[in-house]
Write a structure and sequence with these properties.
By secondary structure, this protein is α/β, with parallel strands linked by helices. The protein has nine helices and eight strands. The radius of gyration is 17 Å and the shape is globular. The structure holds adenosine-5'-diphosphate (2 copies) and zinc ion.
């Protein structure tokens, strides 16, 4: 199954994509994670992307399109993939269509999560990430077993630079201006599937699995 998670920063895309990736046994492709790894590795692409990420702006389309194009050709995508945080502009969505046509594949569902701004800000400001494996946590809503330590790999948790108050508003503005139009874009293609953005993480996970199971039955 080939899926996209669409939603504003803090909507829970990464959290749900990671859970679903384990259930379906297909990779989660997070352009944010890939970019952060390139920044950490100090590659030329990472150094360029960092300027945009630190200011809360989107990284230029050609950079992220290149990343995804390469990633989708890896063997682990043969049985499907979950795009988390891509596409984020209409130009990226158009480029994805071209890529998939070339690979003879298509997106089955765009799982669209919306959450009001006030909740997004509370989620983003309490978000912590594992510096080694990238797993996300929340200080209040999804805390690790031991404060400051990743449950999975034992490495330290950190707060992303762009999760600080100064950059959050800019990221939301970018979302409403450039990414939100994709809701209509995919709705017109009849593949948009609204998913509740609020509620317990586990309940949202269940509604996603229900939607996908229903679709598998319909197709059989
Ligand atoms: P969040 O999980 O809060 O939505 P991400 O980790 O997905 O944030 O993205 C972090 C930053 O990386 C974005 O603010 C943006 O600068 C950059 N980025 C990630 N994905 C894309 C994309 N598809 N297009 C442009 N920029 C991107
Ligand atoms: P995104 O990838 O869309 O930016 P994340 O999955 O990183 O969002 O979630 C943002 C923050 O909100 C994280 O700290 C995460 O632990 C927390 N979170 C995710 N889902 C929920 C939820 N349903 N209720 C409360 N907090 C949540
Ligand atoms: Zn970890």
């Amino acid at each position: 199954m080939n899926l996209i998670f669409l939603g504003p920063p803090g909507a829970g895309k990464g959290t749900q994509a990671s859970l679903l990736s384990k259930t379906l046994n297909i990779p989660q492709i997070s352009t944010g994670d890939i970019l952060r790894n390139s920044v950490r590795a100090g590659t030329p692409m990472g150094t360029r992307a960092k300027l945009f990420m630190d200011s809360g702006s989107l990284v230029p389309d050609e950079v992220v399109v290149g990343i995804v194009e390469e990633r989708l050709q890896a063997a682990d995508c043969n049985n499907g993939f979950i795009l988390d945080g891509f596409p984020r502009t209409v130009a990226q969505a158009d480029a994805l269509d071209v890529m998939l046509a070339r690979l003879g594949r298509q997106i089955e569902f765009v799982l669209s999560m919306t959450v009001d701004d006030e909740k997004l800000l509370t989620r983003i400001s309490g978000r912590r990430m594992c510096e080694k494996c990238g797993k996300g946590y929340h200080l209040v809503f999804d805390p690790p077993k031991e404060a400051g330590i990743c449950d999975l790999c034992g490495a330290k948790l950190y707060q992303r630079d762009d999760d600080k108050v100064e950059t959050m508003r800019k990221r939301l503005d970018e979302y409403y201006e450039k990414t939100a139009p994709l809701i209509d874009y995919y709705s017109q293609k009849m593949i948009l599937q609204p998913i509740p953005g609020t509620g317990a993480i586990e309940d949202i996970q269940n509604s996603i699995e229900k939607v996908l199971k229903g679709s598998l039955r319909d197709n059989s």
